[in-house]
Amino acid sequence: EIVLTQSPATLSLSPGERATLSCRTSQSVSRYLAWYQQKPGQAPRLLIYDASNRATGIPARFGGSGSETDFTLTISSLEPEDFAIYYCHQRSNWPLTFGGGTKVEIK
Amino acid sequence: QVQLVQSGAEVKKPGASVNVSCKASGYTFTNYAMHWVRQAPGQGLEWMGWIYAGTGNTRYSEKFQGRVTISRDTSASTLYMALSNLRSEDTAVYYCARGATPTNGNCFDPWGQGTLVTVSS
């Protein structure tokens, strides 16, 4: 199975700062990578699919990039509601797999 | 609007089985894939399996093969997940999720609210 490694595990930032989250895959997934946001006690929410496409209703401050094995989620200017855990996910190969998550916390 | 509403929390003993349901509304049920994803307490997300609601075709993670059955009732627009031979490690929140689009069935959007399954003697 394809292993997804997210870094850092925790990112401590202040509102207004830029967040850069990384996801590396153990083999190429082309651009079949998605990002989800999860807040405490809530289900995950799709942010980005196919590496760089924002899902419906997702603000423009969320951006995705990358291909093959290296991907990045960027939040250009953190809003208070953006402090959460972010997961990457690949749909290139079965079984579908997720990264371990990056927690973005308030500094 | 598209909505997935799951059944309530369950408490089961080791060795028992659990059935979780997920009622869909706001879209044509048979045009989309549906998935089950679970999350153990304080842990990450784990994909369990998939069904295409139109045909009933399924695919399971090897980790759960033989213990999980995903099915659907198209007349009720409802998805089901049955997990047998429960052990304590199966304690988790179980989520249903729809494929994001008819042609991108393996991204998850939206998700149900989650069902907590607790396995304890």
Summarize the model shown:
The complex is a heterodimer of chains A (107) and B (121). By secondary structure, chain A is mostly beta strands.
* Sheet having the most strands of chain B: 7 strands, mixed
**Structural class, judged by helices and strands of chain A?**
mainly beta
N-to-C span of chain A: 35 Å
State Rg of chain B. 14 Å
Oligomeric form: heterodimer
Helix vs. strand class of chain B: mainly beta
Low-confidence blocks of residues of chain B: none
Which H/E pattern describes the elements of chain A?
Answer: EEEEEEEEEEE
Strand content of chain A: over 45%
How far do the termini of chain B sit from each other?
A: 40 Å
Largest sheet of chain A: 7 strands, mixed
Overall mean pLDDT score of chain B? 96
Which two chains form the greatest contact, residue counts included?
A-B, 21 and 22 residues
Commentary on this structure:
Chain A is an all-beta fold and 107 residues long. In chain A, 0% of the residues lie in helices and 50% in strands. Chain A has strands at 4-7, 10-13, 19-25, 33-38, 45-49, 53-54, 62-67, 70-75, 85-90, 97-98, 102-106. In chain A, the strands form two sheets. In chain A, strands 2, 4, 5, 6, 9, 10 and 11 form a seven-stranded mixed beta sheet that branches. Chain A has a four-stranded antiparallel beta sheet with strand order 1-3-8-7, with no helix packed on it. In chain A, strand 7 and strand 8 (70-75) form a beta hairpin. The model of chain A has no long low-confidence stretch (mean pLDDT 97). Chain B is globular and about 40 Å long. Chain B has strands spanning 3-6, 10-12, 18-25, 33-39, 46-52, 58-60, 68-73, 78-83, 92-99, 108-111, 115-119. Chain B has no helices and eleven strands. In chain B, 0% of the residues lie in helices and 50% in strands. Chain B is mainly β and 121 residues long. The mean pLDDT of chain B is 96. Chain A binds chain B through residues 32, 34, 36, 43-46, 49-50, 55, 87, 89, 91, 94-101, and chain B through 35, 44-47, 50, 59, 61-63, 95, 100, 104, 106-114.
